[in-house]
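Researcher: Please predict.
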Amino acid sequence: MKEKLLIFIISLTFTSAVMSQSRIIMPTDSTDFYDVDSLGNMSSITPPFNNENMEAEIPFDTINVELPAATVWHIDPRSGDRIIVPMDTLKYNFQQTMLADGSSVANGYTGTIGSPTISKIFFENEEEDIFPFNNAHSQSKFGPTKQVFYNTRVPYAKLDYQTAGSRPMREQRLDAVLTSNFSKSLNVAIEGTIIDAKGLYKSQGNKHNNWSIFSNYLSDKFQAHLYAGTSTIKHFENGGITNDSYITDPESIGQSFQSIDIPVRFDRTWNKLATNQIFFSGKYNLGYYSNARDTLSAKQFIPVASLILTSQYLNQHRRFLSYDTTNVNVDGLDMQYIDQYYPNRYYDSAVDDSTTFRSIKNTLALSLNEGFKPWVKFGLTGFIEHDLRKFTMIDEIDGRMGRSSHTENSVFIGGILNKQQGEFLQFNIRADIGVLGADLGQFKLEGDVETRFDIAGKQTSLSGHAYIKNLTPNYLQNNYHSKYFWWNKDFGDSRRVYVGGKLYIPFTKTTISAGVENIQNHIYFDKNRSITQNSDNVQVLMAKIDQRIKLGIFNWDNEVVYQTSSNQDIVPIPTLSVYSNMYLKALIAKELTLQLGVDAHYHTKYYAPGYEPALLQFYNQKEKEIGNYPIATVYANMHLKQTRFFVMFYNVGTKVFKSREYFSLPNYPVNPFMLKLGLSVDLHN
């Protein structure tokens, strides 16, 4: 690992230095960066964080914004439109990027960075993936919808390196991106993430290797985005520790031990998840040239309508394998060691389960653009999408174990109505319905609306989001075969109705949000780790307040989330979750920004989901409550010109509190007290 990191860093630095010698001529007028796309999705556009005031991100009109040297965006997979996002230039709270729980007020995870993770904030969890094994890694998932595309005036490279612990239990993460424009219209980039986390507990390590090459071409009449990526995640599974007393009451053990000495359920057992994908989006604009608003500029192209084609190939593979096969006798029965933890066994050999999924998806869309004439106040898009899918898994064929395959088609039609120009009101409404194939009858209607208004010169924003969904169960929810779990179901459609909103108050630096959802026919894994469907209605309510306080160099940021579920057996969630961050920040010698602070993640006790390695899924359990213990850090963040770095002491509560219940999930404690370091360097010229 060390040699690979050294070679990669040297190569990246050398390439950036060579590229920096070439002069890249980039546009300076904002209209060259921001086209009035058919969808625009301006309601999704957010500015970079204000690093001095740490104000909440607020959607804004890009027309009046002074643009940075680089513009970055996500791509809409159906419409091919660009959704502008902030550049990663955060000076403060950089240390949170090292933590498995840093992406949420409350996360559940199995211990190390890159491990299976679930948000304990209900509305933060994504909709069920068509390949459900992705759900446990949704927060670290790579793909075209999460890829950041670039348009740069100069070559740009960024290198992040984070490390924690000492050998042989070290955690390391390397993130790197290198991008450059080769003309006004063409950008090419490469990005990679390597995680090598040995883990502080036995048989807990995991490795991530994620690489992507991507490009975009932007001109008046034609826009194209290309993405090709490969991702491999391999993590050892220990099934959790065998006795919580090793954490909660170590004195009772009667001997000296380290975290790596704590007994765990499994050994030589792991999950592997591999993904390869190619994505292309092309948009052809029909329109005309007119005099630009700036008379010194050349004529401006006005897109009237657009024809969009997007295509995606996806190939995914999941394998669960164990060499923990020593013969044991349990209640008079001979079995392999790992078998004793599972009541059912559908074949006798060592566990080796694999499932594959392939998809070829094509979408054709036609849009009428907003604003090409003063009287055209909204944009309208219609699309048709075809998805060809193939699944393979083990199966019993003629009395013997073999492999079976299933192929299905799905056709959707849909439309988008939006208004993304204007100062006071913007909205985006989209709907789609399955008209043929496996998703016949699936229906989604979603809407966003936002208004902004000034109060004493301060811009206040109020937004709302709502949806109605009728979701057909995917193939692997209805059918799955493995050594320990085997089912063939015929679940009905799930129905979800949600309404929520958010208010930002600039005077007090307060953001208030709330939402409520009704779920019928919810599909989940019960306490027996069996997939099931609840026919009753379950209501989930969430209210959140984000409050930032600043007095001179003293700062105190708080996020407080209140949640309630009408049925905790079906949708278990903590009643109260809090993230609190108290720190001092100052500018030293007009060059070095310094942040010194302490923060903590906390939530009330509840029956947190359990984690089942053989399924790579989280399930509802009623055996152990988790919570009422803060996972706290003491840290120092520094930023000097193009360099950010941090020093952090993690889980300092173990040095302060007598109680030691630092579990994230049942049987899965977080790392004990340890030192973590991080460095980020921007290489742009």
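Model: The radius of gyration is 26 Å.
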